[in-house]
Each structure stands twice: as structure tokens, then as C-alpha cells.
Design brief:
The chain is of the alpha/beta class. 38% of the residues lie in helices and 13% in strands. The strands form three sheets. Strands 7-8-9-10-11-12 form a six-stranded parallel β-sheet, with helices on both faces. A three-stranded parallel β-sheet has the order 1-5-6. β7, α5 and β8 form a beta-alpha-beta unit.
Length: 388
């Protein structure tokens, strides 16, 4: 168990926690016809871990990177990546790999439940343009995560990874995974077809999420280079922009969330529930105010196929997870309703602070008493039908 702290408040639920999958997950859970093309961890000539996607070394996940994927709180990531004795399989805190240990971690933190998302699954879609194999990868992971969470007494909530390259197949996989226990589904903030998320080509997926009555989430993932543009020039410059990357990495999520309004998705699917993940929450105030103003008061907005201003749909049909160190959230909750906001740990990923419980304790305490419990966990309980 990583060093942790105990939350002062009751009823907490983590809206976005992660696990580190077994390195042989895809080989064991994928259909036999795809087994030789399974996602796997292999060794390079220096005995460093490399992610292999359809038999090819990943170009985006640098060599040695797999050994840092669950290194929350470690300050020596570069050293870890270059050390062959630190591997994908031996570096993670046990709560990231073992379900029983994860429950012990939740108990130590005084957290009732956690909604679970992938880790290695966030990396491969950017480099795989084979729609059929992509569906096989998601099916394998979804089978495993539903099984991994199944003995937790309802405290570990599985969610299904779906790939939009084949929307009909994605809708079918969503239904299959929910039948095995998944309580929600999530997609990358881009598609290899380069169609916006809100585009009617994806209606089959929205219809399935609506009919299944599950939240449909957008989660950051590795992105193809074509999504990033060249504003900052070459990699020589971009690699130095670490703080810029920390705030801009979720731009794709924000952009795709916005396309749902441009295409009138909320009116076409009046029971669809949208969840925005790992993108912060503080931006939503400006975002909605700006979209409302353009929609309501300009000729540009008259061409948007919505019956109501964007904030109307957010206040009734959208949820957003926040980092525990975001101090502006209580005022935004007062503006848009405390029922829209929840918190997330991002455990065990190294790009978020291991002090999340300390920050969360302070953040929950800054909410008015009447809405503390909603933010701490009740919003997430209601959205994912969590009964513990």
C-alpha cells in the first residue's frame, strides 16, 4: 500500500481511479484468432519494457515507460524508465493490481467505493487503426475488469472501454459489457475517422448508453500526432513544455464535450448522461458562459441545433470530475448546482499528487454543509447506481 491519509468526511466515492492490468491480460482474455496480435509488454535490446501493439513497438509510449505507469508519488521517473530491474510487473503499489488490497486502501482512506478505469488501455488506441482488432482489445479488457471487480461487494465499479472506429460494434460491446457488470462506458477524445464525437455517425453508441441507462464518459488518452497541431513547432520544443502539457493534455476532452452541443446530441437523446473525466473542473464556468452567450445572443448561435442554452443540459444531464486540489469548485457548484461535480484520485498515476486525500479533505470542507455529501460521494453513487 502506498503511503496514504484518512479522509475526515463520510460517504466518499472516487469517481476516477485506475488499476494496472496484468501484462498478459490481452493474451489471456482476447479471442484465440487475435492472440498473436494481442497487446503485450515485451523487452527491447536493453532489457527495458516496451508496449507492443499489433506486433509493433509503440512509438508514443517511449521505451521503459511501462515501468512508470503506476508510479504515483515517485520523483525519479526517468531513472525508473532506464532501469531494467524496475519493470511493468514489479513497480506498482499492490492496491493498483490486487482487488483485495485496493479495498484495504479504500478502508485506510475512509473511501467507500471507487469507479475503475484502465491504465495501459489509455495508450494503444492512438497507434491502432484496425477497427476489428480495436474491438477485440476492448472486449478483452472489459471481460477482465468486470471479473476483477466482481468480488468487491460492490465497492469497485467496472466501466467499459469502447472504441468508436466502428460505432455499431462499440454499441454492441457496451451492451455485452454491461451484461457482465460494467456500470458505465468511456471513449477517447478523438477517433481515427476524424469525426467529432457529437457527429451522427456515433448515434448508435449514444442510443445504447441511453437505453442501458449508464453514464457515457470521455477520458483523456494518448492521441495521434495529427490531433496536436504544430503551434509549438518540433518535438525539440514541445518536450520542454511540461507545465503546458499538464493543463493542455485534456483539451481533446473539452473540445469533444463541446461537439455534443454543436450537433444537438442532448435533444436527440433526451436521457443520455455525459461524464467528463480527468480534465479538471474549473474551466467549465468559462466554457458554459461563453457557449451560452454565443448561443443566446449572436447570429452564430442561431445556427446551433439546440432547444436550450448549453448550461441547461449541463445542469441536468452532465457530470464533471475534479482534481482534489481545485479550489474554485465550490463556487462553480453554487453556480451550476452541487449535483454536477465529483472528485477523482487518478490513483496510481504519476501525473497526479499522492496527497489527494489531504487536498480532498480541505476541498470537501469548503463546500456548504448541505452539499458536502453530494460532492464527496452521493453524486457518484446516484450516477453509477452504487449501493454500498
Amino acid at each position: 500500500m502506498h503511503e496514504t491519509h484518512r479522509l475526515s468526511w463520510d460517504g466518499a466515492v472516487d469517481a476516477d481511479g485506475h488499476i494496472l492490468e496484468p501484462s498478459d491480460l490481452w493474451e489471456r482474455y482476447i479471442e484465440p484468432k487475435y492472440r498473436d496480435r494481442a497487446l503485450r509488454i515485451v523487452k527491447d535490446e536493453n532489457d527495458l519494457d516496451v508496449l507492443s501493439i499489433d506486433g509493433r513497438h509503440s512509438k508514443l509510449a517511449r521505451r521503459g515507460m511501462p515501468s512508470t505507469l503506476a508510479a504515483m508519488g515517485r520523483m525519479d521517473l526517468n531513472t525508473m524508465a532506464k532501469d531494467p530491474t524496475i519493470t511493468y510487473d514489479n513497480h506498482a503499489p499492490i492496491g493498483a493490481t490486487d482487488a483485495a488490497a485496493r479495498l484495504e486502501l479504500l478502508d485506510a482512506e475512509h473511501v467507500d467505493a471507487a469507479v475503475i478505469y484502465t491504465t495501459t488501455g489509455l495508450l494503444w488506441e492512438a497507434e491502432l487503426e484496425d477497427a476489428e482488432l480495436s474491438q477485440a482489445y476492448t472486449r478483452a479488457y472489459n471481460r477482465w475488469i468486470c471479473e476483477w471487480c466482481s468480488d468487491s461487494g460492490g465497492r469497485l465499479i467496472p466501466t467499459a472501454h469502447v472504441s468508436l472506429m466502428d460505432p455499431s460494434a462499440a454499441a454492441a460491446e457496451m451492451e455485452r459489457a454491461v451484461g457482465e457488470g460494467a456500470r458505465g462506458a468511456y471513449v477517447a477524445p478523438w477517433v481515427h475517422t476524424a469525426r467529432p464525437l457529437g457527429h451522427p455517425d456515433h448515434d448508435a453508441v449514444f442510443a445504447a448508453a441511453q437505453d442501458l441507462d449508464i453514464p457515457f464518459a470521455i477520458h483523456p488518452m494518448f492521441e495521434p500526432q495529427w490531433t496536436k497541431g504544430t503551434r509549438m513547432g518540433t518535438w525539440e520544443h514541445v518536450r520542454d513544455l511540461r507545465l503546458t502539457a499538464s493543463v493542455a493534455a485534456s483539451d481533446g476532452v473539452r473540445h469533444q464535450f463541446s461537439t455534443l452541443f454543436d450537433y444537438g446530441v442532448f435533444d436527440r437523446f433526451p436521457r443520455l448522461k455525459i461524464l467528463v473525466l480527468e480534465s479538471g473542473g474549473g474551466w467549465i464556468g468559462y466554457w458554459l458562459d461563453r457557449m451560452d452567450a454565443v448561443f443566446s445572443h449572436t447570429a452564430i448561435g442561431q445556427r446551433v441545433p439546440l432547444q436550450n442554452p448549453p448550461s441547461h443540459y449541463f445542469e441536468n444531464r452532465c457530470w464533471i470530475s475534479c482534481d482534489p486540489d481545485e479550489q474554485t469548485i465550490p463556487s462553480l457548484a453554487e453556480r451550476f448546482g452541487a449535483g454536477r461535480f465529483m472528485w477523482a484520485s487518478d490513483f496510481p498515476h504519476a501525473d497526479h499528487t499522492p496527497e489527494y486525500i489531504i487536498d480532498l479533505d480541505r476541498l470537501i470542507g469548503s463546500f456548504p454543509e448541505a452539499s458536502r455529501r453530494k460532492f464527496a460521494g452521493d453524486n457518484c453513487r446516484e450516477l453509477f447506481k452504487i449501493t454500498v
